[in-house]
Amino acid sequence: MAQPVSVAQSSYGMISERTRLRMIERLRQQGIRDERVLAAMYEVPRHLFIDQALATRAYDDVSLPIGQGQTISQPLTVARMTEKLLEGRSSPGKILEIGTGCGYQTAVLLRTGAQVYSIERLSTILDKARLNLRNAKLVHARLVHGDGNQGLPDVAPFDGIIMTAAARQVPSALLSQLATGGRLILPIGDQEQFLWLYEKTATAIQETRLEAVRFVPLLPGKQ
């Protein structure tokens, strides 16, 4: 893991090294083992991605509102999905994110070394994500205002696809944009949701159901 700085400072106040390290220790206890993911989770200043009024809860293991009915996922969910996406891969490769939100998951992926493309349907949320990523000095993702159900066929195939909104079923367009050997992780369901992992081989797509989760729904179109 990269050497931690003594204090992370922002317009929201002082976020101590100890606070971040507590989050990392909690993630280890919760089963996160990939050091790339743990380093990225430490290095990304989560407090820059939420409203000032909630900054003191930035490193708690909770999801928090970011406006327009959207949320930033709890750290464990972000770490778990990222770890599963990168599992067995020495290099993260090219990743498509469906649902940019506040940009936090985007930032974590960037810190693992991934080449990130991210789609957000809400223009005002996307504008916030751009600002958050600039403030965090992570500006190398390609952010797109669009319908995540359609993916980005012009840029495909992707080594990994991660969705941060719950679909009723896996969008077929996303499976078709997954490279052979690639992984797609997403929540599926309405009232009851589970994470699902899809792995594309040369001859088939393997499905694995993971743990129960709670995400906002995946909606069509863009606003």
UniProtKB/TrEMBL annotation:
Organism ancestry: Bacteria, Pseudomonadati, Pseudomonadota, Betaproteobacteria, Neisseriales
Claim: RNA-binding is one of the keywords in the record: no
Cellular compartments annotated: Cytoplasm
Active site (record annotation): 73
Entry-linked InterPro entries: PCMT (IPR000682), SAM-dependent_MTases_sf (IPR029063)
Gene: pcm
Name of the protein in question: Protein-L-isoaspartate O-methyltransferase
Organism: Vogesella fluminis
Enzyme Commission number(s): 2.1.1.77
Domain of life of the source: Bacteria
One Pfam family cited in the UniProt record for this chain: PCMT
SUPFAM superfamilies documented for this protein: S-adenosyl-L-methionine-dependent methyltransferases
Listed NCBIfam families: pimt, PRK00312.1
Gene3D superfamilies: Vaccinia Virus protein VP39
Keyword Transferase: yes
Major localization listed first in the record, in broad terms: cytoplasm
